[in-house]
Every structure is written in C-alpha cells, then in structure tokens.
Amino acid sequence: MGELGTAVLVTAAAGIGGTGLGGGAACLLRRESDRMVSLMLSFAAGVMIAVVCADLLVQALSQGHLPLTAAGVLTGFLITAGLNACLSCRPGLEGDGGRRGELILAGIVMAAAIALHNVPEGMVIGAAFASGEAGSGWVMAAVIGLHNVPEGMAVAAPLTAGGTQWWRAASLAAVTGAPTVLGAILGFWVGTLGPAALSAALSFASGAMLYVVFGELLPEAVGLWRGRAPALAAVAGVVVGMWIAG
User: What rounded mean pLDDT belongs to the chain?
Assistant: First the structure.
C-alpha cells in the first residue's frame, strides 16, 4: 500500500473514528468530565503548535518560497476561520426546556458545519504524508483524531437530548468525519505537484491548524476549566510535540 493509501486509512481512523468516539461518549459522559476534556484539548493544542512550528513550517520554508509560505499560512487560517463561522449559526440551546425539534435541528446544523470544517483538517494529514515525513502524518492524524472527539460530542449531545436514539446520534457524528478523508486526498495530491505546491500545501495546513489551536482548542479548554492545569497540559504538549518533530 502506497503513501496515499496509508494517508487515507489513517485519516479515516482519525476523522470518522474520532467523531464517532465523541458521539458515543456524549451519551455516557457528564459535566464532571469537563476538566478531563479541558486537559485533553490543551495537550492536543500544545502538540499541534510544536509540530506546526518545528516540522510543517520548517519543511515549507525549506522549499525556498517564503512569500508563498506566508500567504499559505494566512489563507489556511482565514479559510478555516470562515468555515468555523458556520458553527455560530446553530440554533441556541439555552436551558433545558427547549423543544425536541429545536435540539434535533441544532444537532443537524452542527453536523453539517463540522463536516465542512473537517476538509482542511484532512489536508493537514495528506500534506504531511506527501512531504515524505510519514511520522508527521501519523502525529497529525493522532492530534486531529483527539480534537475530533469533542466535535463528535457536540453533534450527538443535542440529538440525544432531543430524543434521537443514541446509536443514530453516534452514527451521524461519525459521518461528519468522512470529509476529512477528502481533504487528505486533496492535500496529498497538491503536495506531490512540486516544491512550490508542497510549500503551499504545508503552509495552508499550518494556517488551518493554527486556527484550530488558537480559535478553538485553547478557548474551549479555558472555558471548561479556568485553572493552571490546562496551561501546564499545553506546555507538556509542546514538549512532546518538539520531541516528536525532532
């Protein structure tokens, strides 16, 4: 099996498996798990920062295209931020007295938004495999899979609260991870077109990941637990990420 096949399988496990796991966990976990989720998100954010700065961007710059790399990072950041804006369009879920139909609609809207949002995340894995650094691809798949767990929970929670059977909610959460595979194929294909294309793919992926870190993971982690432990977990993630990238 070639690098593309490996990238597809690994991405499927991270995308579909991560969101599916989160969907199933949403039916079991309670608010007491917020601190554990906060630590998990903080650690994943730290690993992503280190891998992006010490691996992906280093490889992108080594292709000799500094302006292209800078533009790619900004483009990846802005496009991912735009896709993420869809999440803010979901119906409100304040209180426990909302109608079942509103909760189910919220879960469906969330699922569609996350599915779209997962495409650039898949590009990160595909571009990493295209660079010839399979280790980077495996690492990014692991942290993205970890990141997808709370996303799957966000899809399944309103559905189950609205009366949807738990296995249906978990299945829909898993399906939202499927577009990650499409992103991986696109990222791998662009990354094999030449040095300039590889630089563009890696820098775009880096920008997408930087948004995920600073626009999603860290704010969510702080919102779940306002303490020193999440910061320590993030630093630990950076150290582990540096060790992996090195």
Answer: 79
